[in-house]
Design goal:
TIM Barrel, 8-stranded mixed β-sheet, alpha/beta, binds oxaloacetate ion, Enolase-like, domain 1, about 15% strand, Mandelate racemase/muconate lactonizing enzyme family protein, binds magnesium ion, 3-stranded antiparallel β-sheet, 12 helices
């Protein structure tokens, strides 16, 4: 059993949307295919992955060093004999050979994307949905049969007034979501409060609305927003300041009792540990948003979950960033608290399996081997072109 090829391509996920920090007019994403010599249903098993969104494609890093490390490794060293499968931990070790500690960043995205494709292949070789394989191997065998998801959107958009914002949020509720998220921080506080109030008219209750500042604020602005947001009793206040400014996050907690969320721009279990040690995050109410595709993949995510446990955090406090099916599998299989969803943006990567509707804020997963990409036809068409083309 061996990996015979790893292919990658960069695709555009450009759109006119903007958050408080960046616009997405030139946003790209890497897609990866891991081609094996294992035959299932008469065809070689191919695992697929992509790098979530927001950090651009990482094809150059993959081509420069990561792909060859796997292809040049002794194939026998990458096999999990006990399970008669590929060994994602050994493959991860090969990917990370000759990499110094620290230096997290774009490297963690390149590795995370390949790791996603490896796990897709492993679950396909085992003939099971990934969430079931994860629950069987690493938990009590019981995966959650549905996952809580919230609808993320509410971007700044040229010419988009509050009525359009309200229409967007209404359409998420119509599609079965219970909680929605909108961007803040790209305009004045007063203007953002008008936008928030417009959305609250639609969702009815602050507990159904999360806001995301995408790391835009200095401490003074973060606190000014905290004071203004407090009366709304929001679902969460996300990424107020720079993702690595743990002192800011800790100080902000002194000024904001409500739930806060951060972590999408942390890239390793060491980063996560620093956040939990120094960021003043509160295990009884705050949320962690680590995204495996941006942070060295699921092999690393398991270390992050161990760090959380050591520091007194339940895995149910994690609601990953990225709105992808990989995190949905991890949420169901390793018992996280939920997952982000992009019902409309970042297509065809956003959203989950075709034909599985969100109901009362929960979504089920398809019962097919792997991550489930084959059940999302527009995404699979793009992946298949890379893997089989
Ligand atoms: O706008 C983005 O970069 C995405 C983001 O922060 C989120 O989904 O939480
Ligand atoms: Mg965010």
């Amino acid at each position: 059993m061996r990996i015979v090829d790893i292919r990658e391509k960069t695709v555009s996920i450009a759109s006119p949307i903007a958050n408080a920090y960046i616009d997405f007019s030139k946003m790209t994403c890497s897609v990866v295919a891991v081609i094996t010599d294992v035959i299932r249903d008469g065809k070689p098993v191919i695992g697929y992955g992509f790098n979530s969104n927001g950090r651009y494609g990482q094809g150059a890093l993959m081509r420069d060093r990561f792909i060859d490390r796997v292809l040049e490794a002794d194939p026998a060293s990458l096999v999990d004999e006990a399970n008669d499968n590929l060994d994602p931990f050994a493959i991860w070790k090969a990917l990370m050979s000759n990499e110094k500690p620290g230096g997290h960043g774009e490297r963690s995205v390149a590795v995370g994307t390949i790791d996603m494709a490896v796990w897709d292949a492993v679950a396909k070789i085992a003939g099971k949905p990934l969430y079931r394989l994860l629950a069987e191997r690493y938990r009590d065998g019981q995966a959650d049969d549905k996952v809580w998801v919230y609808a993320a959107g509410g971007y700044y958009y040229p010419g988009k007034g509050n009525e359009k914002l309200q229409d967007e949020m209404r359409s998420y509720l119509d599609r079965g979501y219970d909680v929605v998220k909108m961007k803040i921080g790209a305009t004045s506080l007063d203007e953002d409060l008008r936008r928030i109030e417009a959305v609250l008219e639609v969702v009815g209750d602050g507990r159904r609305l999360a806001v995301d500042a995408n790391g835009r604020f200095d401490l003074k602005t973060a606190i000014a927003y905290a004071r203004a947001l407090k009366p709304y009793d929001l679902f969460w206040y996300e990424e107020a300041g720079d993702p690595l400014d743990y002192a800011l996050q800790a100080e902000l907690a002194e000024h904001y009792d409500g739930p806060m969320a951060t972590g999408e721009n942390l890239f390793s279990h060491q980063d996560a540990r620093n956040l939990l040690r120094h960021g003043g995050m509160r295990p009884d109410r705050d949320y962690l948003q680590f995204d495996c595709a941006l942070s060295y993949g699921l092999v690393e995510y398991m270390k992050t979950l161990e760090v959380m446990e050591e520091l007194g955090w339940s895995s149910r406090r994690v609601v990953p960033h990225g709105g992808h099916q990989m995190s949905l599998n991890i949420a169901a299989g390793l018992k996280l608290g939920g997952n982000e969803s992009y019902p409309d943006v970042f297509q065809p990567f956003g959203g989950f399996a075709d034909g599985i509707a969100v109901e009362n804020g929960f979504v089920a997963l398809p019962d097919i081997p792997g991550v489930g990409f084959e059940a999302k036809s527009k995404l699979y068409a793009l992946m298949r072109e890379l893997g089989e083309g």
